[in-house]
Write a structure and sequence with these properties.
It is built from 35 helices and 16 strands. By secondary structure, the chain is an alpha/beta fold. β3 and β4 form a beta hairpin. The termini are far apart.
């Protein structure tokens, strides 16, 4: 056992070096570099070429390989990543995927795909430690990792450059004001990270051999190790790499199941991450780069496309029929990512693994219990949906780059444990299912390609229809609302985690359906098409096509290898071994100049919601009671035993100096902050329930930043707010009255971003009312408004309370608005309630003047 522990420490040290590079890049740019394994591969290739082919000494060859990695990192940052610095994290992660596709494509073109053995360049004579005999090279690897970690930790703690880099990643404008150069520091950190990746490749190549498919596998364990340290700690990255290496080694020693050694440590890391519940930098940006088209379906174009496929199936050659089938199956896979990434903004790098797993189960059932081919796609869809829910469960608690790592690790675990396991995959010959029949007629792709193409066309049409219905449905609107702003969606009563799981299930069902249609194209089913690298390529194709549009998902199938466009270019002699590289380069260009994808040429316009002037029954009047509320951040009290009540039809102002805890109190009441104390609405206690539950119970929230859904029209923003069992598009009387008084009817078909700030405020207020709340909480509704707009807002708040019986709790610094609109004031300071009562009585108190307004300001307000 000790021998295997020491062997694992050696491999774990290489994982740690890769993780150190990932941490270095993320600390400096907040970008997760998924091209890291590709850089390690190029370092290994260059090292072997220099040492073995050119006769360069090993130490010099290693140095040159590391220097080349550093140069590539700086260039990649300056040319690809720096121009995308203002785009959401998902876009930046996808850009590194494009880099990986280009790197792997170039390596395959230059070096080929066959793996070769490479001799070690470190001392590898045996050494005995406590009776265990191991090679000296493993000890050297551990020493190198420890030395690199010590050096990086010391540099990051004491170097002004390192500290300025971290400041730059957190707040670029602030760091620039102190004299930092974002371009120089970003390039420096990318150079450092990629140099470490190249070094890891140089050290790993004697262990795994040299090949396009061998060295890049360092990516997943390195990502997992870096993730343990939240992509920020060098020491935790080292520890994570060593733990993964040792665990892999011990599993290899004691467990005979093929592939399990790679799967178990990664699954363990995923479980640790889920239990830890990361937040903060783990969140996605609120506004994704790609705009979502309205989801219109053109019958003439759809009919033309179907007729074209039928014509190819009936009259085309075998090559063109195969191209049409490839386009349709990969189009279904593309549509699955349209639902997940385009509509829900949830990135998954396990889509091909889900497709392959679904196909595996369907084939096994066909062989074991003769499940007919008619049901096989439905079985695949069901298995895919179930797998999607399982893989999507981490998305309930983690987001963004961490979710990408989780799905990547899961996909690799499925690949290693099932697809590459001869105990399951049928060996070289694969799994041989019965010849597919429909109603007694053979439809196998080899013997009857036309029939199989028509079968695939049928399922593809159903898939397109399903995605179109999702986009046009209330569920689709909730997906896009969550995509734009999870916090605002939860504030309207949308159960975000259920919507996420439903998105994963729907997306994975489409992937599972496509997986079954892919494996049935051959007499024997093999699972090479479902590798992790295939998932990377799929994301690339969809980004090029347009990840937020149905046409973009189908375009992904057309440009996939052996698809219609690919085949057409091949027939013209325009396809070369560089085609994959070219596609990766096109994706990088598209991300920069046309983020909506090639299938979406114009900025998509939203549709006007179907709002009928039918007034929903008003919610029964209920008082809000918050008693002894406390909120703490890192042990520091933001709210300390504050109490406030709001009666039906009453407007209460919550005022106080900056930092008094007003917004924190609103967050506690609406469930966006963990709190102590008791919060009740009428007779119902809300303690322990989340923000979406509280919104459905009758608490409405208008945020200081408004947090409107920019991809939806004003009308759709309002329609989406009608929840809690209400008929979609049926607003309460308070909302219709506000629409009339604020003259918003003409703006219902426009996007919020097209409106001036005052009207955006009005939209946010009406959207809050559209949820039919019993009490509304408004955070700085008057900020940035003119005096005239302020008077209009004050009148509207009074009307809401008087005519609808809704309680209003308003936080605002404009005392004119507060005095004109509010029946009662509650003054907070240092997290506690200082005074409450009628506005003039409260403002006349000496302690309120001392803590908040001051003598002169109080005199002016009271005058």
């Amino acid at each position: 056992m000790l021998q295997f522990v020491i062997l694992g420490l050696g491999v774990g040290a290489i994982y740690a070096l890769g993780a150190l590079g990932i941490v270095a890049i993320h600390r400096g740019s907040k970008i997760l570099n998924l091209a890291h394994g590709g850089v390690a591969m190029w370092g290994a290739f260059l090292f072997v070429r220099l040492r073995d082919d050119q006769g360069v000494p090993a130490w010099a060859a290693a140095g040159l390989a590391v220097a080349a990695g550093a140069a590539f990192g700086a260039l990649a940052y300056l040319v690809v990543l720096r121009p995308l610095r203002h785009r959401p994290p998902v876009t930046q992660v996808v850009a590194t995927l494009g880099l990986l596709v280009v790197i792997v494509g170039l390596a395959s073109r230059i070096y080929g795909t066959d793996a070769v053995l490479v001799s070690s360049w470190l001392p590898n004579s045996a050494v005995t430690i406590a009776g265990a005999s191991v090679g000296r090279d493993r000890i050297c690897l551990l020493a190198i990792a420890l030395a690199a970690t010590c050096a990086l930790a010391l540099w990051s703690a004491r170097s002004r450059t390192a500290l300025m880099t971290r400041a730059l990643a957190e707040h670029e404008r602030g760091a620039v004001a102190l004299g930092a150069s974002p371009t120089l520091l970003g390039a420096l950190n990318w150079a450092l990270g990629c140099a470490l990746a190249a070094l890891a490749g140089v050290l790993l190549v004697p262990i795994l051999g040299l090949g396009v498919s061998t060295i890049p596998v360092i990516l997943v364990p390195a990502l997992a190790a870096a993730l343990l340290g939240r992509f920020d700690s060098y020491w935790w990255a080292l520890a994570g790499g060593l733990v993964i290496g040792v665990t892999e080694s011990l599993v290899t020693r004691y467990v005979s199941v093929s592939g399990l050694s790679s799967a178990v440590p990664l699954v363990a890391v995923v479980l640790v991450l889920i239990a830890r519940r990361d937040s903060g930098g783990n969140r996605l940006a609120a506004a994704p780069a790609q705009s979502v088209p309205a989801g219109r379906l053109s019958p003439p174009l759809a009919g033309l496309a179907i007729a074209g496929v039928v014509a190819i199936a009936a009259f085309g050659s075998a090559v063109w029929i195969d191209a049409a089938v490839t386009t349709m199956t990969y189009g279904l896979l593309g549509l699955s990512l349209v639902v997940l990434i385009g509509y829900a903004n949830q990135i998954s790098l396990a889509q091909m693994a889900i497709a392959g797993l679904s196909a595996f189960v369907a084939i096994k059932l066909a062989i074991a219990i003769q499940v007919p081919f008619l049901l096989a796609p439905l079985v695949g869809a069901a298995v895919g949906a179930a797998a999607g829910v399982v893989i999507g469960l981490p998305a309930v608690r983690i987001r963004g780059i961490n979710l990408a790592v989780v799905t990547l690790a899961t996909g690799l675990a499925v690949q290693q444990a099932i697809f590459n396991n001869e105990s399951f995959n049928g060996g070289i010959g694969g799994l041989v299912p019965p010849v597919p029949h429909l109603f007694g007629v053979p439809v196998d792709a080899v013997g009857h390609p036309t029939r199989y193409a028509l079968v695939v066309l049928f399922w593809t049409c159903l898939g397109v229809l399903a995605v179109w219905l999702i986009r046009r449905s209330r569920f689709g609107a909730r997906l896009i609302a969550m995509r734009t702003n999870e916090r605002a969606a939860a504030g309207l009563g949308i159960d975000v985690w259920r919507v996420k799981l439903a998105a994963f299930a729907a997306s994975s069902a489409l992937a599972g359906l496509a997986g079954v249609l892919i494996v049935y194209r051959q007499p024997s089913a093999t699972f090479e098409p479902f590798s992790t690298s295939a998932s990377f390529q799929l994301v690339t194709f969809v980004i090029i096509g347009g990840v937020a549009a149905i046409s973009g998902g189908l375009a992904a199938g057309a440009i996939a290898p052996a698809g219609l466009i690919f085949t057409g270019l091949d027939q013209l002699g325009l396809v070369t071994q560089d085609t994959t590289v070219i596609l990766g380069a096109i994706m990088l260009v598209a991300l920069r100049v046309h983020p909506n994808g090639l299938a979406v040429w114009r900025h998509p316009k939203p549709e006007r919601a179907a709002l009928d002037d039918v007034r929903a029954p008003a919610r029964p009047a209920q008082p809000l009671t918050a008693d002894g509320v406390g909120v703490r951040f890192g042990g520091v009290p933001a709210v300390d035993g504050a109490s406030v009540t709001v009666a039906p039809g009453e407007v209460v102002g919550l005022v106080g100096p900056n930092g008094a805890g007003k917004t924190s109190l609103l967050d506690a009441i609406t469930g966006f902050a963990d709190s102590s104390g008791t919060i009740a609405l009428g007779e119902r206690t809300l303690d322990g329930s989340g923000p979406s539950r509280r919104a459905r119970d009758g608490l409405g929230r208008m945020f200081q930043s408004l947090e409107l859904f920019e991809d939806l029209s004003v009308g759709q923003n309002l329609e989406l707010a009608t929840g809690a069992g209400a008929t979609p598009g049926t607003l309460p009387a308070s909302a219709w009255d506000a629409i009339a008084r604020l003259d918003l009817a003409a703006d219902l078909g426009r996007r919020p971003g097209e409106l001036p700030q005052a009207r955006r405020k009005s939209v946010a207020l009406v959207r809050t009312l559209a949820a039919n709340p019993a009490v509304v909480l408004l955070d700085e509704p008057g900020a940035g408004l003119s005096a005239e707009s302020m008077r209009t807002l004050a009148a509207e708040l009074r009307a809401i309370a008087r005519e609808s019986g809704i309680g209003v709790l308003i936080v605002d610094h404009d005392m004119g608005l507060v005095l004109e609109a509010c029946d009662r004031l509650v003054v907070m300071t240092q997290g506690r309630v200082l005074a409450e009562g009628s506005p003039r009585d409260v403002l006349a108190q000496r302690d309120v003047r001392d803590a908040y307004l001051g003598e002169i300001a109080a005199a002016e307000v009271l005058a």
